[in-house]
């Protein structure tokens, strides 16, 4: 199957944080929740059970590595993890640091009405570098 993730049309390649091996981490376009990151599997699959045990293990290790980097970079109260796939049927995870002062700490990010926060070039580059710096350590 060919999807927008496989064709390189999603997420925006300019938002790439790092290639982690089985996955690539991207900064989510909406930074209303600072640090919101998307971890995208590098080959097409829609379900975890479609992966071999080794591939699932690699995915979970990379998910944990990305979450640890977000925790170090933003010091959240909690990192939320979401793997849905009903909009884009390609395995990907949303990692969302939930910070002190979160406007709706008990709500899923999709349920929080807000204007999208789109960082300009330098601010976006700084946020990507901030996360990337914690991935390399």
Task: Write a brief caption for the model.
This protein is α+β, with helices and mostly antiparallel strands and 137 residues long. The protein is 27% helix and 19% strand. The chain is built from 2 helices and 5 strands; from the N terminus they run βββαββα.
Strand order of the largest sheet: 1-2-3-5-4
Write down the overall mean pLDDT: 95
Query: How many domain units?
Result: 1
- The percentage of residues in β strands lies in 15-25%
* SS summary, helix count: 2
- CATH second-level architecture: 2-Layer Sandwich
List the SSEs and their pairings.
Elements: E1 16-19, E2 23-27, E3 37-41, H1 53-74, E4 78-82, E5 92-98, H2 121-135
Antiparallel strand pairs: 1-2, 2-3, 3-5, 4-5
Main attributes of the structure:
five-stranded antiparallel sheet; about 140 residues; 2 helices; 5 strands; alpha+beta; HIT family, subunit A
Describe the structure.
There is one protein chain. The chain has 137 residues and is of the alpha+beta class. The protein has a single domain, classed as 2-Layer Sandwich (HIT family, subunit A). Strand 1 and strand 2 form a beta hairpin. Helix 1 crosses helix 2. It is globular and about 40 Å long.
